[in-house]
Amino acid sequence: MRSLLIFTLVGVGAQLVDGALGMAFGVTATTLLVLSSVGAAQASAAVHLAEVGTTLASGLSHWRFKNIDWPLVAKLGAPGAVGAFLGATVLSSLSTEHAAPLMAAILVAIGVYVLLRFSLRTPIAVDGRGTRHGVRFLAPLGLFGGFIDASGGGGWGPVTTSTLLSQGKTAPRTVIGSVSASEFLVSVSASVGFLIGLGRQFLDNWPVVVGLMLGGVIAAPIAAWLVSRISPALLGTAVGGVIVLTNSQKLVHFFDIQWPWSTAIYSLIVVAWASLVVYAWRVSRAPRTAPVTALDVSSESVAR
């Protein structure tokens, strides 16, 4: 019962982050599970099995509100499923000793990306006249995103959503809806890969899966309220720093980096993180006092 409560709290925390940022449920949940002494492969397997339910619900919601471009889902989701199966197979075949630092390294990279993406991001312009993304662009993106997502315990959203939004060829709501729908295929494929690779260990993770799902359901309405109260830039910068700092500790221990170098590494991360948080806080406050210009009105009308 105690473990179920812990995993439910992990699900709550991950859903609060995902609901406010539109991404990072897997990365946040996996980081928190690993900190709770859950094995790397077991953590990623549990997260993806839980996401089968959450992504299905999310995809149906986006379909109801007509936020999905089905050709985009197919071109992105099919390669993503292949990449997720390969990533799950690779992670399942590694020993616990080798899987932990691999996942930590991937999560540090994703954490740095999230940290910089939300602190130093530039406004995204959407050109409604832009051409649709082709298979040559979406297939490699989906394959890479799926592999990173399964082998690192998360990353589908940070890799695919941010990349598609930065292209400015598709409306943000369509990008988010289509990526959410395609993530269902990624989660199912990754779960199958972990089931084959882990066997009974995969089935023993039911308290983690139930806890994550329950926590996600509880936190969903709170996250919807939170997104209107906290700046995504500020929250994303804060979460990215937590992911980098916590997983960098595992790499420092793995490579047996001693004092004073370990202290120097942590200090550098904390100073850089604090600086970016302050910068994101200032940027998040600037639009509130900035005058509305014709360019702003034009951009808002395009986004709608």
From TrEMBL:
<dbReference type="InterPro" id="IPR002781">
    <property type="entry name" value="TM_pro_TauE-like"/>
</dbReference>
<dbReference type="InterPro" id="IPR051598">
    <property type="entry name" value="TSUP/Inactive_protease-like"/>
</dbReference>
<dbReference type="GO" id="GO:0005886">
    <property type="term" value="C:plasma membrane"/>
</dbReference>
<keyword id="KW-0472">Membrane</keyword>
<feature type="transmembrane region" description="Helical">
    <location>
        <begin position="176"/>
        <end position="196"/>
    </location>
</feature>
<keyword id="KW-1003">Cell membrane</keyword>
<feature type="transmembrane region" description="Helical">
    <location>
        <begin position="98"/>
        <end position="116"/>
    </location>
</feature>
<feature type="transmembrane region" description="Helical">
    <location>
        <begin position="259"/>
        <end position="281"/>
    </location>
</feature>
<keyword id="KW-1133">Transmembrane helix</keyword>
<protein>
    <recommendedName>
        <fullName>Probable membrane transporter protein</fullName>
    </recommendedName>
</protein>
<keyword id="KW-0812">Transmembrane</keyword>
<comment type="similarity">
    <text>Belongs to the 4-toluene sulfonate uptake permease (TSUP) (TC 2.A.102) family.</text>
</comment>
<feature type="transmembrane region" description="Helical">
    <location>
        <begin position="137"/>
        <end position="156"/>
    </location>
</feature>
<feature type="transmembrane region" description="Helical">
    <location>
        <begin position="72"/>
        <end position="92"/>
    </location>
</feature>
<feature type="transmembrane region" description="Helical">
    <location>
        <begin position="208"/>
        <end position="227"/>
    </location>
</feature>
<dbReference type="Pfam" id="PF01925">
    <property type="entry name" value="TauE"/>
</dbReference>
